[in-house]
Amino acid sequence: MGKRRQYTRKEVRFRSRADGSRSPEEAFDGHMAIGRVLYDQQLFKEALVCFKRACELQPTDVRPHFRAGNCYHVIGEFKHAKEEFVLAFDAAEAGGNQWGYLLPQIHVNLGISLEGEGMVISACEHYREAAILCPTHFRALKLLGSGLLGVGEYKAAVKALEEAIYMKNDYADAHCDLASALHAIGDDENAIKEFQKAIDLKPGHIDALYNLGGLYMDMGRYQRASEVYTRVLGVWPNHWRAQLNKAVSLLGAGETEEAKKALKEALKMTNRIELYDAIAHLKQLHKKKLKGKGNGDDGFIVVEPSRFKPCGDKTTIRQELVTALNIRTFQRTTRLTRCDVDLLKREMNENETPLMYSGNGLPEKSIRKASLEVVLRRLLSFLKPETFIGAVKAINLKILTVLDETESGRVDLGMFFAILAPICGGSPDKRKRVAYDSLLWRPVTEQAGNGQVKKIDVLHYIKLLRQIYIPSQGASELLEIHGDTDTSLVSFTEFVTMFDDPDWGFGIMSTLLRLETSDRNRHGKQSCSVCRYPIIGSRFKEIKSGFSLCSQCYSEGKVPPSFKHDEYRFKEYVKESDAMKDKCLWFSKSSSGTTTNL
């Protein structure tokens, strides 16, 4: 504190002298020199004052904007950092070749600031531009690879990271991210080698150690995974996720007592509800083991879908629940249920999207993925940057890869809104209305007139909807079966009928709505007979044998091995509220839930 106070007094005197210089040029040089000294002494806020004053004296000079952006970034004000780097970029372009040497670094730093706000796709565009301007810029290539990895572009990430390592072989962070990308595309053996290279270069590399532990877990090498997580905890003793994963790996290795100790240590670090569920799960396993006395009654058997029969039409069919659970997982990852569908309508009404011409000569309101990321940031403005990155990755992998099959980097915005509408927040009628309005908003439907959409466009939309959200059934042959030359018009009422069709539409939406309202409800001390976790959401009770399954085990067709029947008949029960702790009501066909697994 004394050092900072001392520098502040001197800074004020020196700044006064700089302002009293004979010319603006001398004052500019003085403020820049003072700012650089303060920055080197890590007095970033004080340095920022000097650089901002230099910006006022010479607004078209690149250097003060660039250095002010660096100061803002260090103190965590990414928005202001981005603004300064944009000003530096504009000044550099206006100055011609004079500032050409700085352009790659401006792109890199602007990209880093965008990443700080969660805008990874936009950041990748700047990293790519920096690598084009300076092909030997290995850091730009590494950042590009890491960014592509972060949004799920795994093959492109591998290529960029391999190029970065080719230029700088001792780049530990690049080896670590390359390993993660290799694991994502299924090349686990080479991924292990790359993780090991990163650890050899930097023995305390937390990310490499932690991710290597996860890789061993995925491969079923639980003992090795627990050893790696122990190394992580040796470097970072309060890493609760490593402690939790160590417990899981010990459990996988059959060391139940050690797993229980590790779980209790994780519980001391954080009071997350998953840990309470995990401890309850271990207790259930322990009781079952004592009761079974080694009679081989542990585990489960998987039953064919045809042998699972719903008791009446008020129990969700197993195959339906599988699809609905997958969509619900996507909703949780993206937080789209917290995005009211009205926001999509507002986005269409209030923001202009330029027309582009597609390969078939028709105009589209298509935008680049980086611009779409900006739209998503407005829609999901309540998310923290790191959570937003995860949401964009999930959307990119599930939706954008389908909408951009040609990998042009552009997406039909109207179709994108129509795809999002059914899984956003709001009533079902409102979601369908916005989906219809999104199709109506697309320029290719302008010829329809009278507020109606061409049937061919609706069929194409439903085909994409099913391809994205119900991939287990494959891409629907909707256009071929119903005719791909039908130019008739579809009203909103007719659209709803097509949308709700259980065989060719998106009839799964009714099951999804039930999940949204019930999948956090707990059934007191009721636990699943297979996974032994407390049942959350719907409980599926087998009528003949009396055992109960959680939604996840029911959807996967798992039953206790002691109950082997040719056919299983299930009733679905949903715990409606805390006021009905001892009662279970079974809902209509679409009510269901999911479990929270470790």
Automatic annotation (TrEMBL):
PROSITE patterns: TPR, TPR_REGION. Residues 1-25 are annotated as: Disordered. Keywords: TPR repeat. Residues 8-25 have a biased composition (Basic and acidic residues). GO terms for cellular component: plasma membrane. It holds the Pfam family TPR_16. TPR repeats lie at residues 28-61, 172-205, 206-239. This is Calcium-binding tetratricopeptide family protein. The lineage of its organism: Eukaryota, Viridiplantae, Streptophyta, Embryophyta, Tracheophyta.
